[in-house]
Amino acid sequence: MEDFDRPQLIVCSVDPDHDKAIEYTKELLCQYLAATAAHYKSVWEFRQDVIVQIQSILGWPATKEQINKAKHLVPR
C-alpha cells in the first residue's frame, strides 16, 4: 500500500442487463458531478459545460426526478 499516494473512487454498477447497469452508474455520476465537481474538475475529464448543465438541473439534495432529467448528459 505504500505505493498508493491517494484513495480512488471507482463508480460501477453490476446488473445482468448491461444498459441498466450503465444507467445506474450515470445516476450516481450525476450526483457527484453536481455536488463535488469543483473539487475534482482538475482530474476528471468532464467538459465544464456538461457539469454546468447538470448542476443547473440538480438541487441539493437531488431528487430522483432531477437525476433522471440530467443523467442523459453524462457521456458513456
Structure description:
The chain is mostly helical and 76 residues long. 53% of the residues lie in helices and 0% in strands. It contains three helices and no strands. The chain has helices spanning 18-40, 48-57, 64-70. The radius of gyration is 14 Å and the shape is globular. The mean pLDDT is 83.
The helicity comes to: 40-55%
Share in β-strands: under 5%
General shape: globular
Give the ordered list of helices and strands: HHH
Number of H- or I-type helical stretches = 3
Intertermini distance:
31 Å
Contiguous low-pLDDT stretches (5 residues minimum) are none
Radius of gyration: 14 Å
Class by SSE composition: mainly alpha
Annotation, overall tally of beta strands = 0
| Biggest sheet record | none
Overall mean confidence score, pLDDT: 83
Task: From the structure above, extract its key features.
mainly alpha; 3 helices; 76 residues
SSE topology:
Elements: H1 18-40, H2 48-57, H3 64-70
Helix pairs in contact: 1-2
Task: Kindly summarize this structure in a few lines.
Helices cover 53% and strands 0% of the residues. With 76 residues, the protein is mostly helical. The model has no long low-confidence stretch (mean pLDDT 83).
